UniProtKB/TrEMBL annotation:
GO terms for molecular function: ATP binding; kinase activity. InterPro entries: Myo_inos_IolC (IPR030830), Myo_inos_IolC-like_sf (IPR023314), PfkB_Carbo_kinase (IPR050306), PfkB_dom (IPR011611), Ribokinase-like (IPR029056). The keyword Nucleotide-binding applies. Belongs to the carbohydrate kinase PfkB family. It comes from Amycolatopsis rifamycinica. It comes from the Bacteria. Keywords: ATP-binding, Kinase, Nucleotide-binding, Transferase. Residues 6-301 form the Carbohydrate kinase PfkB domain. The keyword Transferase applies. This is 5-dehydro-2-deoxygluconokinase.
Length: 309
């Protein structure tokens, strides 16, 4: 299989309460689902017919076996899922209250396997040649993955398409200042970046979408995608910018909506669509995920996105 997109970063097993609106202390049963930003994005793009793989690591446990089996089931290559022999596959508990932005409880100590990626884990030929490479802010939150992702970007040489998912999660960082230094440092090596207001503020020092877009483009990016919540999505290129209105849905669970957006963004970039069409399509994908429970399992098909549009 010739890959079209390689995503790099976080993987885990998401555990969702089967009793909605109940605090974790009162939940009696959970259902598991494949999770992790980079993993979900690869699944979302695969649902849209793209040939994808994820570069990550798991532990030598049953959850690690589940990750590989689930990836195969979703049509994502598990060929680059390594094993950290002394660590456990991460699990994440979700509390479905409030549904739009449910709290997450991460079990990734002392360090998550996906943050132990080294040079030996990297398929360097794929990094150099794959049509789209997707990296994340979380991927530089700790060593050795930080140095490895830097080397990956240097080897990539800012080839089109190299996409940075800003993916800022405060619990993974000792300070905002360090996150800004590390995530911001990747901007000189990518062709596109995507994030919400809080994430662009970490990356470039402002939450104002237009000012943030200016700063991103000034770093040599060819596409900046800034999610503005209920105000829609700003897409900016050196040639111009537009705000695409949001899709209105009843939110069941906001988790994974951004990853569904990311998978559709990959599909649009590989299809050669114009930025506005990409944002409209990605908005619809994210809205569909928000209207469902679970992340990877909730990723929509092309037919579902077209129907909503």
């Amino acid at each position: 299989m010739t890959l079209e997109a390689l995503t790099i970063g976080r993987v885990g097993v998401d555990l969702y309460p089967e009793q909605s609106g109940v605090p974790l202390a009162g939940v009696s049963t959970f259902a598991k689902s494949l999770g992790g930003t980079a993993t979900n994005v690869a699944v979302a793009a695969a649902r849209l017919g793209r040939r994808t793989a994820v570069l990550t690591k798991v532990g030598p446990d049953g959850f690690g076996d589940y990750v590989r089996q689930a990836l195969e089931g979703f049509g994502v290559s598990p060929d680059f899922v390594g094993t950290s022999p002394d660590l456990q596959t991460p699990v994440v508990f979700c509390e479905l209250n409030p549904p739009a932005d449910p709290p997450l409880l991460f079990y990734r100590s002392p360090i998550a396997p996906d943050l132990t990626l080294t040079d030996e884990d990297v398929p360097w030929d794929v990094v150099a040649s794959v049509p789209l490479l997707w990296v994340t802010g979380t991927g530089v939150s700790a060593e050795p993955a930080r140095a490895t992702q830097r080397k990956i970007l240097e080897a990539r040489g800012r080839r089109e398409h190299t996409v940075l998912d800003l993916d800022y999660r405060p619990m993974f960082w000792p300070s905002v200042e360090q996150a800004r230094e590390e995530i911001g440092g990747m901007l000189d090596h990518v062709t596109a970046a995507v994030g919400n207001r809080a994430e662009v503020e970490v990356a470039v020092g402002t939450a104002d979408p237009d000012t943030a877009a200016d700063r991103l483009l000034s770093r040599g990016l060819r596409l900046a995608v800034i999610k503005k919540g209920a105000e829609g999505v700003l897409v900016a290129t050196p040639e111009g910018r537009s705000t695409v209105p949001p899709q209105r849905v009843e939110v069941v669970c906001g988790l994974g909506a951004g990853d569904g957006f990311g998978g559709a963004l990959i599909h649009g970039l590989l299809s050669g669509w114009d930025p506005v069409r990409i944002a409209e399509y990605a908005n619809a994908a994210g809205a569909l995920v928000a209207s469902r429970l679970a992340c990877a399992d909730a990723m929509p098909t092309a037919a579902e996105i077209e129907e909503l549009l």
